[in-house]
Write a structure and sequence with these properties.
heterodimer, A: 223 residues, 0% strand, globular, B: 250 residues, 5-stranded mixed sheet, 9 helices
Chain lengths: 223, 250
């Protein structure tokens, strides 16, 4: 560790991880809001309008790059922290730690890896296909025709189950992440932290449930 | 009481250690954990064996010397209790007790259950003190300090530097220890003078000596025998941020 430079100490890693994570958590809210338009029952009219806005607004174009950077930074720093930590106890314990630390906090890298794999599948569907890297999904007429693609994809129970499981793991990830970001920013206060933990749990459940009802809708209600 | 003990034995720092089994009979429930080990060692010595090495000093929960990883928890099963204050009545009769040293790259084993905790000393030498000459003891009212703040500083200052936070952390991070030291000074007028340099130097040293990175699991708070709160880690994060952002280049 160098004595110079903001990005190299353990605390700097925390701040960067938390900042990128907090940004991604805000992104999830806007993403969910857009996706819930799929449930409007209007054949995707409102959803298409929202997609059209997102695809044509120059500010969103810029945010796309920021978002990409947010993911890359969060993933890289997460891996760096994990590699550093796995070398910090070369000889382990015979009796595993009986700690009260929550399972959510202990398995962040594991839930993170599952989310990353899901992200690759997700990017394949909505980004790489759009860019023409991969052939269009059957049922979608053009790369921009997202609603039929969503409907077609979620009609496949295997994909829907993978999607829901991924969001359950994302919920686990967020359960720890929300309050952890506050702690990393130094925002721990005996008056507010209990409330932050409750809000974090509600947030994690809403994101996991909110995203999961979309494949369930297409699987069981959509014709 | 009777116990089966599984104890880590290691001849020296470079030797390959292993667990050895002992059966200890006639253990009094009133014995402290260290007295139980003394009792075991007495029997080992009488049979010309090498006694189990472990650290201890005050045996009243103040010095921070004793630190054993007992049945999967630093300092054993009781919360807010050091190994020396733990009594055998807390264990079920006729059970196995597994005793291990602290495990961390920054705390290498010297012999048996004794680890080298000089990494903590290095962190303290990097800034865990007040340079300014504060003179001889002054009248208590000369430096007005809010009672709540002085109590809070004391909450941090009760850290005995035992290393249980490192032992309990899945990442072997020392942030609870370092944050307690940073905070106890940062809250009081004498310590505030050098607060910015202190936090930077201590954090840098903490990273240098090989501790892991904190990932906010809070296992440290749970296993700290003095109940030091992770609020101090948040405080250290704030102190570090403000030192990086606000400190003048000159």
């Amino acid at each position: 560790m160098s004595k110079k430079g903001f990005s190299l100490t353990s605390i700097s890693h925390k701040y960067i991880m938390a900042a990128a994570g907090a940004f991604l958590m805000l992104f999830l809210v806007s993403h969910l809001a857009t996706n819930l338009l799929l449930l409007a029952g209007d054949g995707g009219a409102q959803f298409d309008k929202a997609v059209e806005f997102l695809l044509t607004n120059p500010a969103i174009k810029i945010m796309e790059y920021v978002l990409f950077a947010g993911f890359i930074i969060h993933i890289i720093i997460g891996v760096v922290i994990q590699l550093h930590n796995s070398s910090s106890r070369p000889v382990g314990y015979k009796v595993a730690l009986k700690s009260e630390a929550s399972a959510f906090s202990r398995f962040m890298i594991h839930s993170g890896i599952i989310i990353f794999i899901f992200l690759l599948i997700h990017l394949y569907h909505f980004f790489f296909v759009k860019l023409g890297f991969f052939p269009l999904y059957a049922g979608a007429e053009t790369g921009h025709d997202f609603y039929p693609m969503v409907a077609y994809t979620f009609k496949n129970p295997v994909y829907s189950i993978i999607y829901i499981l991924s969001f359950i793991f994302l919920g686990f990830h967020l359960k720890h992440a929300f309050q952890s970001a506050f702690q990393s920013f130094g925002l721990n206060h005996d008056k507010y932290t209990p409330a932050i933990k409750v809000v974090g749990t509600i947030y994690a459940v809403l994101i996991a449930v909110g995203f999961s009802i979309i494949p369930l809708y297409f699987l069981f209600l959509y014709n | 009481m009777e116990f089966k003990l599984k104890i880590w034995r290691q001849k020296n720092a470079s030797a390959k250690g292993k667990f050895e089994d002992y059966t200890l009979k006639d253990v009094s429930p009133e014995m402290s954990f260290l007295q139980m080990l003394d009792y075991l060692n007495q029997q080992i010595i009488e049979s010309d064996g090498e006694p189990v090495h472990f650290e201890h000093d005050c045996r009243e929960g103040i010095c921070g010397s004793c630190g054993l990883y007992i049945n999967g928890r630093p300092h054993g099963p009781l919360t807010h209790t050091t190994t020396c204050e733990l009594h055998m009545r807390e264990f079920k009769d006729n059970t196995t007790i597994v005793i291990e040293p602290w495990r961390s790259k920054a705390f290498p084993v010297i012999k048996d259950l004794v680890v080298d905790r000089s990494a903590f000393e290095k962190v303290i030498r990097a800034g865990g003190f007040v340079n300014a000459n504060t003179g001889s003891t002054q009248d208590a009212n000369n430096i007005p300090i809010n009672k709540k703040i002085s109590d809070r500083a004391f909450d941090a200052a009760v850290c005995i530097g035992c290393g249980a936070c490192v032992a309990a952390c899945k990442n072997s991070s020392a942030m609870l220890f370092v944050s307690a030291k940073v905070s106890q000074f940062a809250m009081l007028p004498q310590g505030k003078v050098e607060a910015k340099e202190r936090v930077e130097n201590m954090v840098t040293k903490m990273d240098e000596v090989g501790f892991g990175f904190c990932s906010n699991t809070y296992a440290c708070e749970y296993d700290c025998p003095k109940g030091i709160s992770v609020e101090f880690i948040a405080k250290m994060n704030r102190e570090f941020f403000s030192s990086k952002v606000c400190k003048s280049k000159k």
